[in-house]
Amino acid sequence: MTTVTEQQTLPRHVAIIMDGNGRWAESKGKHRVFGHKHGVKSLRKAISFANEKQIQALTIYAFSSENWKRPKKEVNMLMELFFTVLGSEVKKLHKHNIKLNIIGELSGFSERLQKKVLQAQKITEHNSGLVLNVAANYGGRWDITQASKQLAILVEKGELTPDEITEERLNDVMNLHSLPAVDLMIRTGGDHRISNFLLWQLAYAELYFTDILWPDFDAEAFQDALDVFSGKERRFGQTSEQVTAR
Ligand code: IPE
Ligand code: IPE
Ligand code: MG
Question: Using a 6 Å cutoff on CB, does residue 62 contact ligand 2?
Fold first, then answer.
């Protein structure tokens, strides 16, 4: 687990809950789908901004494990959009040396979509630039559960004792463990909650909430979040005096 005590000006890892697509569309008298499509444009902008800023990793929440509860029509449309966007964007990502990584319970998707995900990941797997993690059918509780299961299997095989289960051991089987810890989590859309996003990985992230709806989120709005982040004193449990004495 990476912890950094010095004040950072730029986050190494940013996570985003891209919320507000439906309300954005409804405010324009359109169907929610219209908002999701526009949300893809904002996502492109956010990716190129993160890339230009040389942020190491960007993790975006595309579909939560709870989003299956939405009307079937909206779920189907989101799956179709995910499929199309994977196909149309992966070449561009590759051209920019971006490494795509999908996190979440892949088995919940259709075979066709699972195949597309694996293909897209394969194309960019050796890239060394921005790591783009797309959380799809992802839930923070699922992540902790799947990690616990992995350790339980090792215990069952006699390869690990319960005493050897430490935060580090569990962290090693959580998603995103090989990346720097999330420094900054942005949520658009006005709500101040985590909605089962990265529960474990957000332990010491700075949380930034904005009323801007995701389709209106642009480079300027992203920069505002970075500016607020750079003014934060990150203490990681220490006192302000200890941190400033370094
Ligand atoms: C976020 O926007 C996108 C997904 C959850 C896929 P919403 O669809 O939640 O938009 P609002 O929150 O209803 O406005
Ligand atoms: C969180 O947004 C999930 C994504 C952005 C993918 P939701 O709109 O699903 O969150 P809740 O239900 O309002 O908490
Ligand atoms: Mg929402």
Answer: yes
Ligand 1 atom showing the smallest separation from residue 213 Cα: 14
Give the pTM. 0.96
Given ligand 1 and candidates 18, 23, 24, which is best to mutate, with the most ligand atoms within 8 Å of its CB?
23
Q: Tell me: the pLDDT tens digits for 165-178?
A: 999 999 999 999 99
pLDDT, one tens digit per residue, over 30-68 is 999 999 999 999 999 999 999 999 999 999 999 999 999
DSSP conformation letters of 6-74: SPPSS-SEEEEE---HHHHHHTTT--HHHHHHHHHHHHHHHHHHHHHTT-SEEEEEEEETTGGGS-HHH
User: Domains in the chain, start-ordered, CATH in brackets?
Assistant: 13-140+181-232 (3.40.1180.10)
